[in-house]
Amino acid sequence: MTYKRATLVLISISTLLRLIIGSSIELGNDEVYYLLYAKFPDLSHFDHPPFVGFFIQFFTFNLTFDGELAIRLAAIIPTSISMYITFLIGCHLRNQFVGFVTVLLYNLSIYGFIISGTFILPDSPMVLFWMLSIYFLLLSITHTPAKNRKFYLVLAFLFIAFALYSKYQAIFLLFGLIVFVALFNRAWLTTWVFYLGFILPLISLGLILYWNYQNDFISFTFHSNRVSLFDFSFNKDSFLRELIGQVLYSNPYIFLLTISFLIASARKKIRFDGHLVKFFLIFSFPLIFTTFYLSFFRNTLPHWSGISYLTLLPLLAVYIEEKRKIDYRLFFGFVSFLILIFFLVLEINFGWISPSSNEVRKAWIGRKDPIMDMYGWRQSSKLISDYLLEHPDEKYPIISDKWFPAAHLDYYIAAPNNLNLYAIGDLKNIHKYYWINKIRPDISNENHFFYFTDSRNYRNPKDVYKEQFKDYKRLKEFPIVRNGKVVKYLFMYKLTKG
């Protein structure tokens, strides 16, 4: 079997496994939220640019199919394409063996395999377009500007534009392009295509800016509060969380292999073009350093730099070939990783090893179990649907004061029962629902509302809405059962204005 055929088999197996995982667990907090981007498309959105919504629309045939697996196809299929792109990058660097190892390493990455590869997030389209950008930049700016290389550069600019329209981190692609050309291949500065190509990403940025202009630049206000560069109060917990997260999300093996590669490269113990090493480092490490820097002072999320570690995989594959350490250890790690992932999926659905809770307060059951965020919503959907069938006169709008759990309630409870959900609260808490509320029917004359909360994140409506309602009546408590045990409760309230 050639390494190309082995790669295709590996990608096929990976796709099948991710399809199984994607159909086995309920949508997470972020996934149901980004589904709103497909239901309510716009030039941009409060949190991120809109491409993730476009992907969901495309892969679900404009929401004709809106099951969990159908929605996650927008992550699973593009990731399989991204894996093949990394194979081509590895082949370009050296040979098909390096390409095959690159794809194998990709499948060892929690960020690559699960976070962006199975769950539907803005990272899913961004990773595909980022990898396409890297591939065509490699074919262009690392060479002299011949005619075919100019065409590759135009394609690179196009995919950079798409990546920017997926997630703001893609701005580091433009940064890397400018730095690499300015420092290592100035011949491109004499070509008109280098300057003209910037029009494409500028169009993406222009659309984002135009939407923000219409909405008081709310996205930039939101993100500037999250990633301020000038708040110098050290946040130890955030930094440690970022460090541990980067190690785990990239996979400890890949993280340590990256450090080993950097040391070997600095000591010139790798027979590889230093020009190309600089290319990959310029397109990966600025984002890694930036997220570490931000974590000193602000709460960050480790997956922000996940794409940087995927970008480095072809270099690590070259390093593995140099050291001849592929043998069975890497395959053993791959199999072990898959076993771990499937064990976690089974644990989410069956809770075989989760310790029994001694909590007697119903409003607190499951509070310390983080996997409860991805379990119980299917049960909740059926329980509420059955209740509404028994009480056909109770068809009230649902209200919530935060995007989470509003998005879950919207997908699993409101939509199946033809109810509208409204997020009533501060913009910083309700996010895109600020705009959705304006699209849905006016509720100013409504007198009764449903309010739902669960014991994982219990919030009494009297504390949430204070004096806004005259009566707060708990209608029912729904036990959510897993493996024969009650693992949390869903509480259903009826709120009345007067």
Mean pLDDT score, rounded?
Answer: 91
For the record, give the distance between the C-alpha atoms at the N and C termini, rounded to a whole number: 74 Å
Low-confidence parts, pLDDT < 50 over ≥5 residues?
Answer: none
Walk across the major sheet and give the strand order: 2-1-3-5-4
Helix tally?
A: 23
Tertiary shape: globular
* SSE ordering: HHHHHHHHHHHHHHHHHHHEHEHHEHEE
Number of domains: 2
**What percent of the residues sit in helical stretches (DSSP H or I)?**
55-70%
Q: From the alpha-carbon coordinates, what is the Rg to the nearest angstrom? A: 24 Å
The major sheet is characterized as: 5 strands, mixed
Query: What's the count of strands?
Result: 5
Structural class: alpha/beta
Strand percent estimate: 5-15%
What do you see in this structure?
The protein has 498 residues and is of the alpha/beta class. The protein folds into 2 domains: 3-345, no CATH class; 362-496, no CATH class. The chain contains 23 helices and 5 strands. The protein has helices at residues 3-24, 29-39, 51-59, 68-93, 96-106, 110-115, 123-140, 147-164, 171-184, 192-196, 199-214, 218-226, 236-250, 252-266, 274-282, 285-295, 306-323, 327-350, 377-390, 403-414, 427-430, 433-439, 461-465, and strands at 398-400, 421-423, 448-454, 471-482, 485-496. The chain has a 5-stranded mixed β-sheet with strand order 2-1-3-5-4. Strand 1 (398-400), helix 20 and strand 2 form a beta-alpha-beta unit. Helix 1 runs parallel beside helix 5 (96-106) and helix 7 (123-140) runs antiparallel to helix 8. It is globular. The model has no long low-confidence stretch (mean pLDDT 91).
